[in-house]
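Hi W.,

Here's what went into the run:
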Amino acid sequence: MSGTSAARGVFGAVLILALWEVTARGFALPAYTLPAVTQILGAVWEHRAALQAAALVTGFEAITGYAIGALAGIGMATLLVLARPLRAGVLPLLLAINSVPVVAWSPLVLLWFGVGVSSKIVMVALAVGFTIFLSALAGFDRVDRRSVDLMRSFGAGRIGIFWRLRLPAALPLIAAGLRVATVRSLIVAIVTEMLGAYGGLGWIIYQSVTLIDFVQVWAAILVASTLSLAFFGAVGALERRFIFWR
Amino acid sequence: MNATAMAALRLLGGVILAGLVWEGVVVLFGIRPHLLPRLSEILAAIAFTPGAYWAGLQRTAAETLIGFAAGTAVGIVNGLVFFRAPLLRDMLLPVFVVSQTIPVIAFGALVVMWFGNTLMAKAVIAFYLTFFPVTVNTLLGLNSVDPRQAALLRSFGATPTQILFRLQLPMALPQIFVALRLGASLSLVGAIVGEWFGDNTGIGVLLLQAMYNESVVALWAAILCAALLGTGFYALVAWAERRIVFWGAEQ
Amino acid sequence: MNRRHLLAATGAAAVSPFIRPAGAQTLTRATLRLKWLTQAQFAGFYVALQKGYYREAGIDLTINPGGPNLLTENLVASGADTFGLSGGTDSVFAARERNLPIVCAGVMHQQTPFVFVTRADGPIRTLADFRGKTITTWFTGANFVLLGMLAQAGLSRGDFTMQPQQVSVQPFVDRQVDVVTATRYNEFFTLMNRVGRDNLRSFVPDDHGITFPRDTVIVSEQTARDRPQMVTAFLRATIRGWREALRDGKAGVDAVMSVAPTLNRPHQEFMMEEAGKLMVAGGAARNGLFWIDRPVVQAAHDFFLRHEVIKTPLDLAAAYNSSFLEAIPLADRIA
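Here's what came out:
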């Protein structure tokens, strides 16, 4: 079953790539409109050293920011669940920060943290942190009021309830948040790099546009997309193991 | 009515309190304006050229709404088609997934070439970011409907269309709304990023101008506008959800 | 893309339905893509637009601002925009080398618009002092100008650290880097405000024999071939607007700020004045605004060739076309 659907997926991808190739070659589209797939693959090979170095920078930013964001998000949600009085004060502030679309923070973050790696990490942590914070909080709150009362009547404390009841209930939602956040982390890193950076895939894209090398733009995007899918797959695989263990 | 008024009053009180805290913290701790200007300074900047901010707000809101509406419609249709035609789902869904790993901003020039320097170009990006979560959640929602219920309706002589509109779609609505709430913020992101590809009006334009002129006050003014729009739109979707899903459940 | 290409191909004149009441002349629709966000650097275009000079010249013009990650050459080559104000001689070289079908019809800034700035009280007094220092610059042309300048002082690539510069001059203000690149009309203003004019020392490329004219007016080869009168009409209206903006800087800034009201006025007035100086400098004094100074362009070309920024010599006669300008009487072009 899953074998056939995978085969269909591959078929669909091949079909679209073939259509792309034929369109680009057949209409002899210039590279600034749409380069052919084979041209892009050729560029990836040709610039593999530069692209690999850039992928390492972007990957580092994304993964570091992701780790910080995930820890901060889960930590903050835990804190707010355990310390109710804090919640009333902090939650509105966090929601206010989150109501600003994440890209709108990027200019400010660039001015504050500079053009280097740290501004990208901050942006990724911000984007990932809120995604996971909101899923974790929703998960922790998902428990039934009556179950909480029941456990309390058995003498369970706040922490006991959290550990036995809230955390297990929240895990699927946290896991979903962690998965969704992978792709976001790379996109946010790249978008921020394009506004200002010393290196990375976004920087390569920016430079390639100013140097009028559109095949390289596509090559960098191909690498970015592959990196996203790999990260997504890795987190998904880890998650299956982890949940299986529990 | 009274309760609504109370809630509005409380909200207003909260906003005023937050504003006072902001102002107080900046003054008290002597925070450099380069990091965080006083709120009053930011509001003064908005009051100095209210027209620019108002026009930007309207423009960005229009782009967001069009993109969101199109993304919702296409997403739901996609979800329905994929639900009915697993072959198409298996072939196209992975491609959709890949499409979402592409940072649109990299294709600024392409978007301009294809759609011109129009409001539509921005709406297209908002659409691009919105349609995917709606597709996935519609499919998830439809798949979560118990097939035995559908079988039961069918035994009563219900047509597939009736089953879809009376059972499956209403049951999928809560899932769909989860995606719509996400789409509300994503479409705004899309509209703002779209405005970075050369335009005169919009919150994204104000953000860029402020950034490249290193004007932190103007930057915060634009951020406030973005927050206002983000909150408003999210609240609108949440309100619709309460009304529609409630109505759906009553059926 | 296809749609726009078709549009350009089928209705080369893309005649607009609007009829001017007075002259009953049909207006041609066209767009101008700027190289950057709306600011006083482009004041003349906005003056010409708002005073109706383009309309009088038969063009229904829309001005589209630029932005990060948008390349004017690309948009003009593809037909998405009719006219472009693009990076400069350097980006025209790059575009022609990659076979983008664009032609330069005029040059706005006759001198190199950027300078390299250090602190007046710092250790850098001459170009030779750049050894071992950290420099930030734009990797889109300015980097090569700096390399050329430093080569004259006997320094080569490994003798200093060169980093890409973007977004902010703050690292220089915070003393994290020794040298920063600034356009005379934009970043220099921010630096003056944060560090103080007297605390800055500038190294000017033109003082070292390197001149890079920038801010080039470009059209596609197709437009240049099929609609030369329109290009001339565009330049005539543009120069009209600029002559007014240069004479009355305040009005120029007003025109810009009516489009982008949140801009900082003192900054824009400074920009207006400094950008104006670049426009009337060099060959423009004798040959008028937007003059294409061929010897200077040739020198810039040879410089890039020497530094292997462009790999093969370009046909400059094809890339730079002065005929549109020359169709306008010189008296109308002089600022």
